[in-house]
Design brief:
alpha/beta; 332 residues; single chain; two-stranded antiparallel sheet; 47% helix
């Protein structure tokens, strides 16, 4: 009993220390990302969950800046891919080239692509062709890249932050469902408030703009991610997560709205995302265990890219946000 209490006390201290660490990181990020509190919190939640994020928003809303600032503050090695229709898979993963050593012997040498970093930004990911988009599938799921029959491990931790413009569709390719499912969250980025926009235009147009400070090391993020997985979660919360995920599938749902207006629903990865993200959100908020409030708050960013509306739903102007609200209604 004494050992159990001591272990519980140690875990409580670890949670509190990690919360203070997260708070310092969040404050530093907000020194350079004005407004967008929800976007920053969801991004930190995704990183603490060990996942990848898809940012959907119009150009100029700070998505690229967010990657740069968060990467610097967390001490992560950042990389960037500007997705275009002519981008090839090897431009992302790297390729083998014929090299020659000092003795004149020729051999194949692997040259790493931009994916070999710890925090990768795939800008305008839907502008790359499907064959190029698929180059990230193995990296996002298995944290390795296979080239020429050889596996090359990616640096740890490894996270992808992809961006997408929700309006411009010319010259774009929709992301396949398998790739969408690999993003832990889809985070919608909206326009800033009047006060925040005033800060943006005032603080980014001066002669001497400050640079963010590095407050962490990659190993500290890995340690925090391990702590998230140790956080206890109530059986009622687990049951609610399962119920919400299964109610989003037209084949299993008891809701007429889902049966009539949803083409396909979330798979088991959605439940895994809920389990990790709910714990991480609680930690970001300074709590030692997640609650139903965490699950409800995360329902839209976790489910909206894992569900698709049917044609009748689109003709009636029904949105996924409305469907997700209906799915979660019994828990509000």
């Amino acid at each position: 009993m004494a050992n159990a209490k001591a272990k519980s006390g140690d875990m409580s201290e670890a949670f509190d220390a990690t919360y203070r660490w997260i708070a310092d990181i969040r404050d530093e990020v907000h020194n350079f990302i004005w407004g967008q509190e929800l976007v920053v919190d969801l991004s930190l939640t995704t990183l603490l969950s060990g996942g990848h994020m898809l940012l959907v928003g119009l150009p100029g809303l700070g998505k690229t800046r967010l990657v740069s600032v968060m990467g610097t503050v967390l001490g992560l090695e950042t990389g960037r891919i500007q997705c275009t229709p002519d981008l090839m898979p090897a431009d992302i993963t790297g390729s083998e080239i014929l090299a020659q050593d000092e003795d004149g012997n020729r051999h194949f040498k692997f040259v790493e692509g931009p994916v070999f970093c710890q925090f990768l930004m795939a800008d305008e990911i839907n502008r790359a062709s499907p064959r190029t988009q698929s180059a990230l599938l193995q990296a996002m799921q298995e944290y390795t890249v296979t080239v020429g029959g050889h596996n090359h491990a990616l640096p740890q931790p490894f996270h992808v932050m992809a961006t997408q413009n929700p309006l411009e569709q010319e010259g774009t390719y929709p992301l396949p469902e398998a790739q969408l499912d690999r993003f832990l969250m889809q985070i919608n980025v909206s326009y800033p408030t009047l006060a925040d926009e005033k800060d943006i235009i005032a603080k980014t147009t001066t002669a001497s703009e400050k640079s963010p400070k590095t407050l962490a090391k990659p190993q500290e993020l890995i340690k925090a991610q391990a702590l998230v997985r140790q956080m206890p979660i109530g059986e009622n919360v687990v049951d609610a997560i399962l119920d919400i995920v299964r109610r989003g599938r037209p084949e299993q749902s008891d809701l007429a709205e889902v049966q009539d207006f949803v083409s396909w629903g979330p798979g088991p990865r959605a439940g895994q995302a809920f389990m990790l993200a709910a714990r991480a959100r609680a930690l970001v908020d300074g709590r030692h265990a997640p609650s139903m409030d965490d699950v409800i708050a995360l329902a839209e960013p976790i489910l909206q890219h894992r569900m698709a509306l049917s044609f009748p739903a689109r003709t009636r102007g029904i949105t996924l946000q409305q469907i997700i609200t209906k799915i979660c209604e019994k828990y509000v």
